[in-house]
Amino acid sequence: MAERTKYILDEADLPAQWYNVVPDLPEPPPPPLHPGTREPVGPADLAPLFPQALIEQEVTAERYIDIPEEVRDVYRLWRPSPLYRARRLEKALGTPARIYYKYEGVSPVGSHKPNTAVPQAFYNAAEGVTRLTTETGAGQWGSALAFACATFGLSCEVWQVRASYDQKPYRKLMMETFGAQVYPSPSDRTAAGRAILAENPQSTGSLGIAISEAVEQAAADPGARYALGSVLNHVLLHQTVIGEEALRQFELAGDTPDVLVGCTGGGSNFGGLAFPFLREKLAGRMNPVIRAVEPAACPTLTRGRYAYDFGDTAGLTPLLKMHTLGHGFIPDPIHAGGLRYHGMSPLISHIYELGLIEALAIGQQECFAAGVQFARTEGIIPAPEPTHALAACLREALRCKETGEEKVILTALCGHAHLDLPAYGAYLAGDMVDNELPDTALEESLAALP
Ligand SMILES: *Cc1c(COP(=O)(O)O)cnc(C)c1O
Questions:
Q1: Which of 75, 158, 287, 323 is within CB 3.0–4.6 Å of 79 for a Cys-Cys bond?
Q2: Where are the alpha helices (DSSP H) in 61-139?
Q3: Which of 102, 107, 109, 111 to mutate to test the pocket of ligand 1 (most atoms within 8 A of CB)?
Q4: Which domains does the chain have, with CATH numbers?
Q5: Average pLDDT, stretch 346-364?
Q6: Residue whose CA is closest, atom 2 of ligand 1?
């Protein structure tokens, strides 16, 4: 067979359905609880925040959900996304492993986030919602939702974590170009934000605080709803287009992955790639090791507790059973902003507890070294988040070099770094430090679990 490096599907091969992994699991994940009654939340509890279609997808027992044609039309602007074989990286490493990466940086905002932003905006618009509120950390999710809202004629308001609002002016400009309003969080526009500012006027914010602000605004306006870019079941569901495409591309390549790695912030790009492969694994059709990689400074799966906790800082969201560092936890300012969340998708947490996936944490210096090596061989500068997956991929490839094993490695390259280059600047200048999370800080934060 001729040596190919790029596996492209036709537009006609764009998946027609999303895949819901829940019915294929040996047991279902524990339900979200109402923070007041501690009873499982019902659809009525969620109705002020989400449209009916998404509430149904959150709890559905269906294995496959049809992707609306209107959504597939927008997906076709950049999907199907390419799968690459990293031949030049393999050669540089001198590894017998075959390395593949599924690249989501071809989307309008440079990451996987529009895969869920587009259907979320579509279902809200279809149910008559006119305004969406959300938070953003690194700015990727805010950009994706701003783009999706522009597509379906919704207004969009984004609370951007103060630290990144100040450090990342280009993300803010991208959101504004797509027509969104962007506020730094904590802001004085909400009770949650004012409470934080009263305690600490210099607060640089956190994702948990920004979520509280966006949720508060949506709940107060009957014409508004809230949109979340990760963590929830319906978000991971939408992201499974990534894995479904990758499965078909592996057929084209005539190969099967032995190891699949992805980075986890809230778990959506990882779940999106991994779940269709997990289906195949549970059905006995392949047997890849599936490995989640998180930052050593925010080690939710590897050091967090599996417990019910709030998704936000103010305690406005339902209680989610997940791996958490505590809802008041504010991680050190590492460069992979998208991985700085105190919790983890309940579905990923559950699958980890079932022993179906592995997890490890890696410090950021090793990650950026991997990112630079990848850029210099493959020509794509990876976003800071997927450098964590690449670092784990390199560890595996170098193990194969020692043992001579010809393993097939698949890694999720969920975005590029064109608006995150200052992080590379810090690495190249030797200014980057590894922030291990001290046990005492973790214990203090976990003591406040509800
Ligand atoms: C948001 C983001 C992440 C983290 O979110 P997940 O839900 O864990 O995927 C990772 N990488 C990029 C490029 C992101 O934009």
A1: 75
A2: 69-75, 87-93, 114-126
A3: 111
A4: 5-13+68-110+234-446 (3.40.50.1100)
A5: 98
A6: 338
